[in-house]
Amino acid sequence: MKIISFRISGSFAAFRDPSVTSNQTVYYIPSKSAAVGILGAMIGIKRSDQLGDIYSKEYLDFFKQTKIGIQLESPPKKVVYFTNHRSIKEAKTKPFKTEVVENPRYTIYVDTEKIYFEKLSNALKKNEFVYSPYLGHAYCPASIFD
Q: Rounded to an integer, what distance in angstroms lies between the CA atom of residue 34 and that of residue 14?
């Protein structure tokens, strides 16, 4: 078994709880799905092939073949802020809670099939990725280093 490890960090992370729709509650550590999404972005695996598909076959294969370990490298700290959302239909506002993790740093350990392993290894060595990695949301860009 070969394992690739690398560090990933950012100013903010927002790994949402998919079961909560009214507010943006976040986890300190990314789920496997979020981690596979980060890795897939790095090596160019699209989540879906066409409109209407939930997941592409390549993404599902990568998800099934990949084992991930995540180590939290920084003390977890959430920042919570509230905004007022206005209704288009009525003249009233509704408070909306948003959470983000501040200054997260992780070490990610990856074991996967040879083809994906080689793509990921090459991308990390060159520090060149197909899509820019981010920590949950596009407003949370990630920095990757060894």
A: 10
In a domain, 88, yes or no: no
Q: What is the pLDDT of residues 129-144, one digit of tens each?
A: 999 999 999 999 999 9
Q: 123 lies in a domain?
A: yes
Cα 73 to Cα 75: distance, rounded to the nearest angstrom? 7
Neighbours of 18 (CB within 10 A): 8
* d(C-alpha 119, C-alpha 125), whole Å: 10
Q: Is the pLDDT of residue 51 over 80?
A: no
Domain annotation covers residue 127: yes
Q: What is the DSSP letter of 14?
A: -
SS3 33: helix
**Of 62 and 47, which is predicted with more confidence?**
62
Q: Is the pLDDT of residue 39 over 90?
A: yes
Q: Which of 7, 135, 24 is nearest to 83 (CA)?
A: 24
What is the model's pLDDT at position 49?
67
Number of domains, the chain? 1
Domain-located, residue 95: no
- The β-bridge relationship of strands 93-102 and 67-72 is unpaired
